[in-house]
């Protein structure tokens, strides 16, 4: 049964075939008596069994031994990369049959099929307990539980990778991970070994440009793109192939944090992205992505001006448009982090009929690595039986035994071909998986293809595609990262590489780190760019789920705040009232308002916008509260929308906001600072509209102070 709601009475209301299947593995809430693993009720668990009140502990205390032994074995190896992550369940539905001419994969072509999915987002470099908001690539791995078996699309939020051949993956990861002698720094690329590697491997440069860009600092997992990265192959019912690149596009738009914020959030809420995903789903604000594909005929392979097998290259959307093909919604949080998000096992070789690989040497290496890593991480060959990993289709193999065998296979035969078992499980010559018949020939040799040699034109295209603000951020990021590099010769080598991308880029970075800029402009820039790569050039999105902090104290204009809340909630935003202490605030002209949180427990970096409402005594309190003043100062510095009305404008003045402020009820909106002297029922709706517009634009980079940090 796929996607049919289950009858009530289950421990949890299930919604699809995967949820239905998981139900059999879910335990009820821990409400009954405590037992041992053997189900024996436990009478006493706080003192071990000892010989005499102050005597030694006895070996026969089986409850003590079982409790300690299990605890001692609770940890499994964390993922060697992508150790820190967060996941959720949902579903994918294709829009229609538009991909039918290209692929036999039913989940992509049958609009009547809603396929359950599990998605895990991750950072790459940090350990399991590291902060979410580090400068890093984000993993975007999707397991589709299709009717033809599990398909895994194990992608990232960058469309390109750092190396061309997977044999270099251990070198790359050893260079970027904490240095082996000190195990420092944690979850950072800003150290000597990473840049030592980069400075000698020009193939890394394109991905490094993405890493230094705002893409490496996503505001939310819900607001980032995903990419399959490699060129894959669709295969139709007749075995004909078409090259394909996969894209996920979030409906909430693509938005980033700024670096200064990221560093603050890493201390104030290291779970920032994880919490954001969890809370949005709990609140019913289900994140959505559109799946898009770029299709290239096999005969057109060589019309693309670079090698499709090179994972350090992207196909500009202007050259091959992205065809939207379906929608994914994440609507269910896991019940248990370890059982589901930690034990989920992705593998690039989990394919269904209709999708195949190409000879991309990075992908070929991955096809070895993922299965291999799951064996050590999940302790044996039966990890596909773990609830989160099980397909919703029936599994019938001749594989037997091994650690953690959970099923009870019956019958005498576990081999093929057999007659004793009636020849079962039988082969599926028609519907089974057939590898694409790719023609290959050539000598056996260790060599990098000539067509992989150009390492500079796409980093340059990326740089050329950025807006001025995005370029500023990239320059500052290089300045920060290389500023942490102690070895001068590494800095010099990196600058020499940057000089081959753009002389101006190298010169600007050199001046930030006090190094001599490369002397000559060595390149001829063809000016190639792909405007689709710029985040800031994309159309503004809506404001759904954006978080607005309302700063208030006793004496606040309750009517004004309530009108603001109602309007912004109607538009999908989330508001929270922050006050010097939690509790109920008295309104200046009657009424009261609940304060959701104390200002000191939060910070403007945890919100998208801040509003200071009217209320002379409320504002007087806030102007003497350092945390409240800093709140507005930081929001201003980080180019976030700020609104104030009535006496609320005073807090903006004290915080040093330099934009023109209103001196009449008419709304003044300059560079994302929206003000009016009106209050309560007189508040003009233009104030809400201007705030909405500023939120949809995300940041105002043109602030008068010009001091926003990158
Ligand atoms: Fe990888 C995990 C994505 C190249 C070897 N990778 C992993 C995850 C993601 C990616 C999203 C986390 C999956 C999860 O949430 O459990 N990896 C990529 C992308 C790559 C890439 C988009 C390039 C296009 N990876 C890559 C190479 C190798 C690996 C070249 C090795 C040759 N990756 C692994 C791994 C991991 C992994 C060691 C660690 C944990 C795991 O697999 O399950 O096998």
UniProtKB/TrEMBL annotation:
Keyword GTP-binding listed: no
Catalytic reaction list: 2 H2O2 = O2 + 2 H2O
Bias type Polar residues, positions: 30-39
Cofactor dependency: heme
Broad class of enzyme this protein falls into: oxidoreductase
Keywords: Heme, Hydrogen peroxide, Iron, Metal-binding, Oxidoreductase, Peroxidase
Highest rank taxon of the organism: Bacteria
Compositionally biased spans, kind Basic and acidic residues: 10-29
Disordered: region residues: 1-54
Residue stretches making up the Catalase core domain: 35-424
EC number: 1.11.1.6
Alphabetical list of Pfam families matching this protein: Catalase, Catalase-rel, Catalase_C
Family as reported in the entry's similarity comment: Belongs to the catalase family. HPII subfamily.
The protein's role, per its UniProt record: Decomposes hydrogen peroxide into water and oxygen; serves to protect cells from the toxic effects of hydrogen peroxide.
Listed name of the protein: Catalase
Organism: Rhodococcus olei
């Amino acid at each position: 049964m796929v996607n049919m709601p289950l009858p009530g009475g289950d421990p949890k209301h299930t919604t699809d075939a995967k949820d239905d299947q998981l139900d059999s593995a879910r335990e009820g809430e821990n409400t009954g008596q405590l037992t041992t693993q053997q189900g024996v009720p436990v009478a006493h668990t706080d003192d071990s069994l000892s010989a005499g009140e102050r005597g030694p502990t006895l070996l026969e205390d089986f409850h003590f031994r079982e409790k300690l032994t299990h605890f001692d074995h609770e940890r499994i190896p964390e993922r060697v990369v992508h150790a820190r992550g967060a996941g959720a369940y949902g579903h994918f539905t294709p829009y229609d049959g538009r991909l039918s001419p290209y692929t036999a994969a039913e989940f992509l072509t049958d609009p009547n099929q809603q396929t359950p999915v599990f998605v895990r987002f991750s950072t790459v470099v940090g350990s399991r307990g590291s902060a979410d908001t580090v400068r890093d690539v984000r993993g975007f791995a999707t397991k589709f539980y299709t009717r033809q078996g599990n398909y895994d699309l194990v992608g990232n939020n960058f469309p390109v990778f750092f190396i061309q051949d997977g044999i270099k993956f251990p070198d790359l990861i050893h260079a970027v991970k904490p240095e082996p002698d000190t195990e420092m720094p944690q979850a950072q690329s800003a150290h000597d070994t990473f840049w030592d590697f980069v400075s000698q491997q020009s193939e890394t440069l394109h991905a490094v440009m993405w890493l230094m860009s705002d893409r490496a600092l996503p505001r939310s997992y819900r607001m980032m793109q995903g990419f399959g990265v490699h060129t894959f192959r669709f295969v139709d019912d007749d075995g004909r192939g078409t090259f394909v690149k996969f894209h996920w596009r979030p409906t909430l738009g693509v938005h980033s944090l700024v670096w200064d914020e990221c560093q603050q959030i890493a201390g104030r809420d290291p779970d920032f992205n994880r919490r954001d995903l969890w809370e949005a789903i709990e609140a019913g604000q289900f994140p959505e992505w559109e799946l898009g594909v770029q299709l290239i005929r096999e005969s057109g392979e060589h019309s693309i001006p670079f090698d499709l097998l090179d994972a350090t290259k992207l196909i500009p959307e202007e050259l091959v448009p992205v065809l939207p093909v379906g929608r994914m919604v994440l609507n269910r949080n896991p019940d248990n982090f370890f059982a589901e998000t930690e034990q989920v096992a992705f593998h690039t070789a989990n394919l269904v009929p209709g999708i195949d690989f190409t000879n991309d040497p990075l992908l070929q290496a991955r096809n070895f690595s993922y299965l291999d890593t799951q064996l050590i991480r999940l302790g044996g060959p039966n990890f596909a039986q773990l609830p989160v990993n099980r397909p919703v289709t029936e599994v019938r193999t001749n594989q037997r035994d091994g650690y953690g065998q959970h099923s009870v296979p019956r019958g005498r035969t576990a081999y093929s071909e057999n007659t004793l078992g009636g020849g079962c499980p039988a082969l599926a010559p028609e519907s089974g998986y057939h590898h694409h018949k790719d023609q290959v020939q050539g000598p056996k040799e260790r060599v990098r293809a000539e067509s992989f040699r150009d390492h500079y034109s796409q980093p340059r295209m990326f740089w050329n595609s950025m807006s001025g603000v995005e370029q500023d951020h990239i320059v500052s990021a290089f300045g920060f990262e290389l500023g942490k590099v102690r070895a001068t010769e590494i800095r010099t080598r990196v600058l020499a590489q940057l000089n081959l991308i753009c002389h101006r880029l190298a010169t600007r970075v050199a001046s930030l780190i006090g190094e001599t800029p490369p002397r000559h402009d060595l390149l001829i820039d063809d000016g190639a760019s792909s405007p689709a790569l710029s985040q800031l050039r994309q159309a503004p999105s809506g404001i759904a789920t954006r978080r607005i902090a309302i700063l208030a104290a006793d004496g606040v204009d309750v009517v004004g705040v309530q009108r603001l809340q109602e309007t912004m909630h109607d538009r999908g935003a989330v508001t929270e009232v922050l006050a010097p202490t939690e509790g109920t605030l008295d309104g200046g002209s009657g009424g009261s308002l609940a304060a959701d949180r104390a200002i000191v427990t939060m910070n403007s970096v945890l919100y998208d916008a801040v509003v200071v409402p009217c209320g002379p005594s409320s504002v007087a309190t806030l102007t003497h509260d350092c945390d409240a003043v800093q709140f507005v100062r930081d929001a201003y510095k980080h180019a976030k929308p700020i609104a104030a009305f009535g006496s609320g404008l005073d807090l903006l003045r004290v915080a040093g906001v330099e934009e023109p402020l209103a001196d009449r009820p008419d709304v003044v909106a300059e560079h994302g600072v929206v003000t009016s002297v009106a209050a309560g029922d007189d508040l003009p709706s233009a104030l809400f509209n201007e705030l909405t517009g500023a939120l949809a634009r995300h940041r105002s980079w043109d602030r008068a102070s010009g001091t926003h940090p990158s």
